[in-house]
Amino acid sequence: MNSYVEQVIAYVEEKYAEQKEFVQTVREVLTSIAPVIDAHPEYVKADLLKRMVEPERLFRFRVVWTDDEGNVQTNVGYRCQFNGAIGPYKGGLRFKNNVNESVMKFLGFEQTFKNSLTGLPIGGAKGGSDFDPAGKSDEEIMRFCQSFMTALYRYIGPDIDVPAGDIGVGGREIGFLYGQYRRLKGDFENGVLTGKGLSYGGSLIRPEATGYGAIYYLDQVLKHEKDVLVGKRIAVSGYGNVAWGIMKKAAQMGAKVIYMSGSRGYIRDEEGIAGDEKLDFILKLRESNSKDLKSYADRFGCEYVEGKTFWGAKDVDIYMPSATQNEVGLEEAKKIAASGAKYYLEVSNMPTTNEALAYLKNQKQMIIAPSKAVNAGGVGVSALEMSQNAERLSWTAEEVDMRLKEMMKGIYDKSVEAAERYGLGYDLIAGANIAGFEKVAQAMYEQGVF
Ligand code: NDP
User: Fold this and answer.
1) Which domains does the chain have, with CATH numbers?
2) Ligand 1 center from residue 267 Cα (angstroms)
3) Of ligand 1's atoms, which has the minimum distance to the CA of residue 210?
4) pLDDT block averages, 10 residues each, the chain of length 450
5) Which of 4, 151, 343, 398 could form a disulfide with 61 if both were Cys (CB 3.0 to 4.6 A apart)?
6) Nearest residue to 410 via CA among 384, 370, 377, 368
7) Closest C-alpha to ligand 1, atom 48
8) Hey, is 157 helix, strand or coil?
9) Contact 79, 155 (CB under 8 A)
10) Ligand 1 centre and the CA of 238: distance in Å?
11) Which ligand 1 atom is at minimum distance from the Cα of 165?
């Protein structure tokens, strides 16, 4: 591998040894883009990679709020404005108790290349808090969001940094966050956040976008393999926002999601997780934060397995991990490879550990696609929401969906082309990393040394 790339990986491994997720994603991305560095000695001279692995800005702040019993609670908030070379910073907010600096940095770094890949002018960011909405009342969540935004509002704006949702941050939280932003600014700047409700500037199809986009991407992969989506059996981990969108679009296009899971167990529904009744049930279940996935099995008469995961099930054609980071380790990867499934599409951010990914890549019969491409439809439609807000327009669902579909095809095509251009063959992982990297690198290079 290129010695400059090795040097920068070693620098990150040593300097940020305790930030495991961040080190993992830097290693994965930089290894893929080594051929681009070989072809661009000027990037080495400008020390571009060392600059790129440091966020432009990363700050943490105190978020104090009062619970329903009147007790004062203190949490930590973060915003990581990783790279603004190609547009205003853009990336979600995650509220979960395991949020820390490493998680913020890995997500911000990934987001930089993902946003570039969409072809839209958006930089990369991520933020959040170690606050966990599970078990909190609506009033507690509102007070937390108001305090969070009071600390953050000076540092964001429609042309500066545009946060959105992620794990633990859905429409309800975005509403509270926007309300407080508007109250503090005295201005209807709704382009400051995406994932908003339709009544104050949200975009149709945004809630579904990540899952829909993943299925559109999958469709491109299947076409390449001269295969079809109709009749395919899919296993999706999670039953959150992303998993729900996948289920909806998969059913519309003739495939069946048979498995879904939560952190405590999984469902196997031979009939397919489809239709308004089941999908509405899942939406409500997730919103309730009860984690009671078994209630789905009780209601719809299917199998629930407590305390286990479904990786390696033999009745699956396509695996789509869509829950959280590092959900597939080496052991799970071995089971997936042995199951005979041909397709493995990452949907959640970094669902596969480095060693599990290396193992899967060695299985020549398997097609593997990376999350930064597969899940990019979410942020892509967020950027469409920003355009609609800027122009004070509301596009129809059909129009947004059509643009999403085109965007996913564009992302897929760009990835295939980039890998081929560097002589790597059909490599969707390297291709996505290279295509995302090229634009950011060139923009940084042209903007001078800082
Ligand atoms: P949600 O919070 O809506 O859902 C997460 C789901 O994952 C829940 O159903 C949760 O179940 C489940 N889960 C958590 N841990 C595990 C585990 N170890 N095994 C199985 N299931 C688990 O999140 P989203 O759907 O919004 O996001 C999922 C992933 O997709 C994240 O990585 C996110 O960063 C990424 N993403 C999301 C986008 C979006 O538009 N929402 C855009 C791009 C990426 P339980 O309640 O039982 O814990």
Assistant:
1) 1-54+438-450 (no CATH), 55-188 (3.40.50.10860), 209-365 (3.40.50.720)
2) 16
3) 40
4) 95 98 96 97 98 98 98 98 98 97 97 97 98 94 98 98 95 97 97 97 97 98 98 97 97 98 97 98 91 97 98 98 97 97 97 96 96 97 97 96 98 98 97 98 97
5) 151
6) 377
7) 263
8) strand
9) yes
10) 6
11) 41
